[in-house]
Records
---
Amino acid sequence: MGKLIKWIIGILAVLGVLFAIIMMIPDDEDDYDYDSGSSYQSSSSNVASQSHSNNTADYNAGGSYADISSVMVGSDAKSATVMVYINGSDLESEAGEATADISEMLRSGVGDNVNVIVQTMGTKEWQKYDISSRTAQTYRVNKGKFELIRDNLGQLDCTSEKTLSEFIGFCKKNYPADRYFFIFWDHGGGPVYGFGYDEWQSADDSLTLAEMASAFADHSDIRFDIIGMDCCIMASMETLYALAPYCKYALLSEDFESGLGWSYTSWMKELENNPGIATPLLGKYIVDEIIKDNERQHDDDYSSCMGLFNVSTSKSLYEAWKAFAYKNEAALLDANYSTPHMARGRNFWDLWGFDESDVTLEDYYISDILALVENIDNSSDEARNLTSALKAAVAYYGHTSDKNELTGLAVSLPYGDSDFYNELTVVYRAIGLDDEYIEWLGNFVYGSDYDHYYDYSGFENSWDGWGSYEEEYGCNISSGGSCEYSYDYDCDDYTCYGSDDSDDGWLYDSEEDIWYCYDGDDLYLYDEDSDTLFYYDEYEDEVYYYDEDDDEWYLCED
């Protein structure tokens, strides 16, 4: 019995949501309105969400645009600090997009339980709130007011790791909290070019993943619940690998973001009201609000995809990707698999040498990993292992109802571009990717068919969200364990949902030698050795066992 209870506690503490089985909720299921506490009918049934099972994951999300609060485990945290690193750039000077998001933060009403600390830099003109463009400043969002707490910092370079590290240290010292979140706000250029275009610095300067990692490493006593990037095309395998030591989850976009960026009011209000809210549930709120905000615009320029990623899976994902890529080297070199998707919304002007009229994901060598698998090889062991690792990494994913060929995570392959490859080698070595892989990537610079782009139209038409992958890949444990479906045990009068929305969706954990399933309220466990059925009531924090002779549930005493 003691081992069982330790197993349950371990699942709650380390895994969070107890390997929750996918609960497929109909498209017209009521969503929860975090603003009013009421329900409303979802206007879009095409927001994809998915679940994963992973022995280092914190949760599993299921359904289509669904309320997953019933499977989330929160904490007793009473305070939170959200660090917002805003480089206004041309997005603010030309369109006021940074101050528009600051206005959303102010409407959240945070201030009692949540510190939202904002550093303002990098633009030649701020549109609102009397923010200085002559010097960097630091503000606090406090009950609807934008309070200046540091002034005359100088014209700080937001693309410098020293600037980033100093800001983290200031927030940590002056606004300590039970939990921490970090948000980068500006342009994004993918895993090689990184973050930030500072109007006061050279257009060639950016904050790379390696520099981010170095700044976060200066403050190893903080492990952020979420590191998010309110900027374009940063959702990549390489980004997760770089951030893994410093956060539990990353919240990123694989696509170009629209001018709306993130939507801050509702999720910040939710965090203020419940600072102990489960991290993955808060991440889901953020994703859903971004998608809903873009859907409301009814405009082709407002298209969005956003994912919440479990960074603890990044090494498993990296190893699975290498095995797949090395096996399929010839196919990958036979055509350019970069995604031909046009930039919309947040324009890039002349950033990193591109003209805004023709910027595509191809220019940043963004190749969707699942699309590669489905178009090159989806049946080998290497392909199945990679898909399983992706399932573990993509904790929750949403996109607007327009057809979106992106599935969550990308990888960069430097087709025909020696300059890009040279920058890549510096960044990738600094974040710890191995030399063999980096040298292997050099093959793509000199491949003879780098200017022949692969046609993804078939995949775009067939891609229907992660739901179709739930049954086959929903229960793989990416870092050493294994699990499989079994329908041998009768669920009697309760329903344990399988990945295909069927009954008797039991999973087996080979490491703990126990069967388990989740019915939306309770975790059921079956021990074959003792032929005993248990369940854990997460709300009462108690374990019960079933006495078949008495047909009764009894509280476990030890």
---
Amino acid sequence: MKASERHLGMTHMNMQHDMKGMDHHQMATDDHTMDHQDMSKMDMSDMDMDMGDGHMMHMGNLKRKFWVSLILTIPVILMSPMMGMTLPFQLVFPGSDWLVAILGTILFFYGGAPFISGAKAELQMKRPAMMTLISMGIGVAYIYSIYAVIANNLFHVTPTVNNFFWELSTLIVIMLLGHWIEMNTIMNAGSAVDALGKLLPQEAHVVDDNGNVTDVKLSELQVGQTVSIRAGEQIPADATILTGSSAVNESLVTGESKAVRKTVGDAIIGGSVNGTGTFTAKVTGTGDSGYLAQVMALIKDAKNAKSKSENLADRVAGWLFYAALFAGILAFIVWLTVANLAVALPVAVAVFVIACPHALGLAVPLVVSRSTALAAQNGLLIRNRTATEQVNQLKYALMDKTGTLTRGEFKVNHLISLDDQHSEADVLTLMASLETGSSHPLATGILTAAKEKKLVAEAATDTHQETGLGQFGTIAGTTYGVVSVNYLEQKHLDYDHDQFTSLASEGNSISYLVTGDQVLGLVAQGDQIKPAAAKLVASLKKQGITPVMLTGDNQETATKVAAAVGIDDVQARLLPEDKERLVKQYQTKGKVLFIGDGVNDAPSLARADIGMAIGSGTDVAIESADIILVSSDPADVIQFLDLARATHRKMTENLWWGAGYNLIAIPLAAGVLAPIGFMLDPMVGAIIMSLSTVIVAINAMTLKIKDVA
């Protein structure tokens, strides 16, 4: 919530990690939380694998499938010919073909099960894609190999028909290995999840009402309990400091490298590390409701999300399926015409087998996994992976002022009484009474000023907000309100326009105290521009993205801040619906990035092509944003844009590597170069496929994030 927006009826929001007492605007986290202990117990057997078109197939014991298949593959390799050639170490004995057929059958139905299940789902949706293409390759290889064994051993055909069990077994093992690597990579991408889960200690020091300290298991810790955190210990849960102070290292949680000084009233995040001080704190969030749980769920959502590039990869696989089907059938007909069935059938089979797109299947997931890991390690939580693909089309960056470009830490610069019966102290006391219990930055500024002046402010009763008007409450039987200049103009209340302009031109956000039709006084509060704000704006302009400020604050303050950071287009005194309307308006001209606080900017964050919530908190509203910046540093926006572009570039490169292999291998397997004496054997195709997979994996791992410090 911004300076004047709070007075326009917005929800109070603490930019400093505190949103208590606001249940009606609290983020619903039931579907987005995960106990850290549950996360730490996750292994590969619990992972799901995206099988294309949004179908998630439970991989089950993928690791076991790989090892069993590998063990079964060894005797198959030893007992079956490679590319039709008998190897020096090959074991051939009576019945060896039948043994190979039995092992191959087990391999096909056991090791190939994940791909067959995925293909079944794709075909049920009438959208053949990656799994269908893979299943076609291994299915044709298996059926043809069984035919070869029967033809050779029961009917003793001449010449001998070469089987593909060698190719079938190695293809299945390679694919299982690749998908196991993929799952491991994704798990590494979610290593931030595991790391966050491991940040929490196993026990907490609970302090009872008598001051006695008891160590309890973290799973038994409850919201509202008081805990003691000693020097050097990890903080067991989200909490608010009651007594004491210390420098807290939040680097493993927020990415901030410097320790943050925490004192009474400050919020602390579970998993961060206490410094040399000792303090007590009241628990506000435990394992399943705390900040870490939200981050875990956030990364898990990002990991499982389906991006456009992945849909493109599936579409490419679908095209390759039809291409291989057409090429295989055509090759069969042509070779049957120019040669015979003994030649035509192996060629067609070779086309179907070689079409297996393992590298294509890994092209995007490996890059996304690497990108997710890098982002999480640098405090960039990508909730919607599609966002990374929109960056190259961005034309506008619409951004909020307070908390985004400025610190959101207000200080009362001017306190003025406008009524003879109320002193400045009276004005501040009444305002503080209305703001008691609020954690909004403007409210915090007023409460801090009252505390410094040692004014006693009792909480007002019947406090409420009126949308577009301000904050109201009853004090000693009289109703007062803390409002913005918009309220005064709407109610046609007299105020000194010159005075307002003078104070606002200094960069102040101005709040008025009113009762009935009387304006009793005002406070003018100043905010500080973040050091990296100007750098962000300059970087956006350099990238061809037009920065625009959208704020609920007054025009004078907004203009001054905009001028200081280099923004030319400024829209001020906006309600949330005004911001959303402007987002839609700019979208008619090009793709829009919106940067806001994630709570009162939710409509705009949801509407924008990329919604980016800047400013972390234990109750950060993740539902509306695509990207969450854990720290409040504008430089992270630059870092995200750079990472997104690099990610998109790697995706494109890998798709070309994956699809390029098939585009070349399928025609060669069909025999287009047969007139000059070249035919691509399925095993050579399998080897090329493996190399393509390695290239794709290496290329994905070269993705790096720039240091914009």
---
Amino acid sequence: MRREFFYDRGIRLAAGLAIVVAIPMAVLFYFQFTSLKDIETTSAVVLRQMSSETADSMTRSIEDYLKRPHISVLLRITQARSEPIDLAFIEPVFNDGLTESPFVASFFVWAERGPHSNKWLVFDQPSKKMPDGPIERRFREDQALGQRLLPRLRELVETRRAIVAFTEEVNGRPHYVQAQLRFEGPARERMTSVVAFAVDAERLRTHFIPSVLKDWRLSLQHPSGFPRLETEVLDEQGAHIFTSRHEHVDRDVLPVDERSFAIIFFDKELLEFAAPYEEHREIWGLRTSYGPQPIAEIVSASTRPQLALMVVLAIAMGVGVFLVARAAAREVRVAELKSNFVASVSHDLKTPLALIQLFAETLELGRVRTPERALEYYRIINGESKKLTRLIENILDFSRMEAGLRPYHLEPADLSALVKKVLARMGTQFEQGHFSVTSDIESDLPRILADEGAAEQAVENLLANAMKYSGEAREIEVTAARANGHIVVSVTDHGIGISRREQGRIFRKFYRVQRELGGGPQGTGLGLAIVDHTMRGHGGFVRVDSEPSKGSTFSLHFPIPSANAFQGALATEGR
């Protein structure tokens, strides 16, 4: 195999073509795979950055949403507007506050002095919807609520904080209450006015916060080709306030980023000025995720189709290179075989022609002294002429077979007589080569449908092949017998034999067995190809049984026709 690789031009050409194509393709695919890894790294960075920015942005949105009433309402109403209470100024401020911050259930105002002194005035959504009329009608006095809230506010005066916040039940529901206290003097020892608001705690968690987050997510851009970024908000006990996932909330997810924020209604930088938040603040959590998969697995899954496509493309290109290389190698081998064929034909033509010319000139010059010697020369000339005729017929038959123009005229034929006829015709050649030919032909073989000329040529080619490759052994056996619905004509020699690897190739055109005997060309390589074509044209087949150095047996299997096959037209053509 190693010697065949180095000396076979077809194999060398195929290997060179594969290397020339494979190296650039390997480099190309290497860079493609590297670029996929870079894409995965970049995609992971993008997903992490998107998650981080989304978590920060949503946290800021919630904090801005909650502190809006403090900034837009409580800080807008100065102490001068609340002492005494300036209802004409405060009403539009409260009205805008309820519109801008719908989660606020009601606003409160109270002052120690003025025309509305010591009255706990409430402005809420029903107040906003009241028709025009006296402004006092839209500010409802709630003495019961004031009697509960004012004592608690006065207790918080001791903290000396301007912002106070606590939880209180309003109308039987827990509310977050936040107040802006006004004091007499910088010592903050006595409270003189209050501006405050209350937020329904349950509605904030079930309606307002989820509503804000849903609206915010509508503007969120999701990168194509990746899972959606999901967000969740949970309270201190881990209960879900909001989730963007459509699946059940209990399904496991892998958080990417987590943030926490306090439920306060003012800027978190003002915590040191608020009471009693330094004791307890309700902390909610926000987390983002891409589902149950980690980012590394997500980006790997996104490039997996491209990777699979590249693998398929690489396999397809590899198969293509293999097919092209094999076709090129085959063409090179065919070209070499044709070249060898021309050389072999030239040699096989020159040898009989030289003998014919030599003996013809000898006879013409009258140098033959005895009639017996002249008769021998005539037989040699006749034998060489027949050999030359057979060679030319083989070439012509092969040419017609290649063009698909070789018809077979099938007629009733006696195969035993046909074999004997061929043996008799080649007797001179056997004598010249000193071959001992024995035959065992059954006498009662049934007739077959055959093209006698083609069948004779097939048997003759096998005998010539046996003579050519017999080596030092000069014995040939010919048998003809019935077997398994066929008449089998076998030719056995005891020559160089054929390896199992070559047995599948010997019926190809131009192929010749590589023998170790040397001696130049070994025939045209067409004999067995013609035999195979002939047998297939007769509906039969040819088989070989051989071992190296032990000889070969070639068997022609002619099918035995049925009883009515000879009725009707006897001359039918088959391909």
